[in-house]
Amino acid sequence: MSIHPLPPPKEPTGLGRLPVARWFLLVAILAGLIFAAGVATVMTMTAKTAELNPRPEVAAQVDRLIVALVVVFVLLLGCGAGLVVIVRYAVLKPIDQLTDQVRAVAAGDFDRDLHVDRPAELAELSSHIDSMRGRILSAWRVANDQAEELRRSNGELEQFAYVASHDLQEPLRKVASFTQMLEQRYGSQLDERAKQYIAYAVDGAKRMQLLINDLLDFSRVGRVTGERTVTEPGAALDRALDNLSATIEDTGATVTRDELPAVMGNHLQLTQLFQNLIENAVKFRSEEPPRVHIGVRRDGDMWEFSCSDNGIGVEPKYADRIFLIFQRLHARDVYPGTGIGLALCRKIVEYHGGQLWLDGEDTEPGGHGATFRWTLPAAGDGR
Ligand SMILES: Nc1ncnc2c1ncn2[C@@H]1O[C@H](COP(=O)(O)OP(=O)(O)O)[C@@H](O)[C@H]1O
Ligand SMILES: [Mg+2]
């Protein structure tokens, strides 16, 4: 298992650039020099005193002084050597040991225990770092397991949606065609009410067909036809407008656009995205003829697209709800639809690594119109 590769350690600055061991060496050399200078000074002073031919009691005192000084110097030398050993084995070595252990963990060996048993301060530090490692590791493992479980159940759900909608098509076709045949063949023998019931059944079957087709599209995103390459969204938009040409002509809608830059995307899915958004913009129109504009602006590594219209708009409190599958704000007889369109759009955009949302602020004066925004990864154009 591995988390992301770790960045290289930060370079120390100023006096921190010198490792601690070097500082100790510097101080030790300085102390050694002072010590040697002290010994030399004392020796010259005693030699000079001896040249003055002092009285015997004074000479005896000087001899005792020399002995005392020798003892002090030897003790000092012993202390210095002891300090070197202590620093080396009680500080520098454990620091090295801990650094090695931390480096191994940082390099990806997350199961490695961190432990040094002396000195007390480093032992405490290592035990804190180790418990931090343990806690992060177990939280990460839980998150990993959950992500894995989520991926699995998502895959299962997609598979289920696909199989269910695919297998439902056949019996549905049967229901629709036999009800229609019933009407054609026995229409003359049926009264008005029976004909009305048949019309309801045919209408129900058609609606179910629409739902199933939309569900199939929804479950296909990311499962099939998912390849992403450098794509011209302009071409996907042309295709979508082509598919919507009858609706656009009937409603007298005008669709304008900025110059659309290349993105990393899937042509078919981007066509579905434009088609659903423009279809909504035209369907949820106000009294005026629909005007739709596809805009674009740069946002870091992404392009932020927008689709704005002059239609009936969406109340901000529904800004999240409309993206849920089957969620609609209007009765079916006023505005027909399955409520899958925006859920499909969001799935497509998220599959591309972007985000899709309703812009609550950018509506036309009087609260009319809706603007949807979404991001798509730029196609490495170096801008
Ligand atoms: N451009 C728009 N203007 C106003 N309302 C919209 C617009 N686009 C979507 N909506 C609202 O969001 C709901 C969900 O949209 P969608 O998922 O495409 O379903 P459908 O188009 O089948 O109703 C719509 O029923 C509508 O209430
Ligand atoms: Mg729709």
Automatic annotation (TrEMBL):
Keyword DNA-binding annotated: no
List, alphabetically, the InterPro entries matched: HAMP_dom, HATPase_C_sf, HATPase_dom, His_kinase_dom, HisK_dim/P_dom, HisK_dim/P_sf, Sensor_kinase/Photoreceptor, Sig_transdc_His_kin-like_C
List UniProt keywords, sorted A-Z: ATP-binding, Kinase, Membrane, Nucleotide-binding, Phosphoprotein, Transferase, Transmembrane, Transmembrane helix, Two-component regulatory system
Could you tell me which residue ranges the HAMP domain spans? 89-141
User: The Histidine kinase domain covers which part of the protein?
Assistant: 163-380
- Reported EC number(s) for this entry are 2.7.13.3
Provide the catalytic activity annotation: ATP + protein L-histidine = ADP + protein N-phospho-L-histidine
Pfam families for the chain: HAMP, HATPase_c, HisKA
Is the keyword Phosphoprotein assigned to this protein? yes
Span-the-membrane segments of this chain are 20-44, 65-91
One GO molecular function term of this record is: ATP binding
Tell me which positions the record assigns to the signal sequence.
none
Name its cellular compartments: Cell membrane
Q: What is this protein called?
A: histidine kinase
| Lineage start | Bacteria, Bacillati, Actinomycetota, Actinomycetes, Streptosporangiales
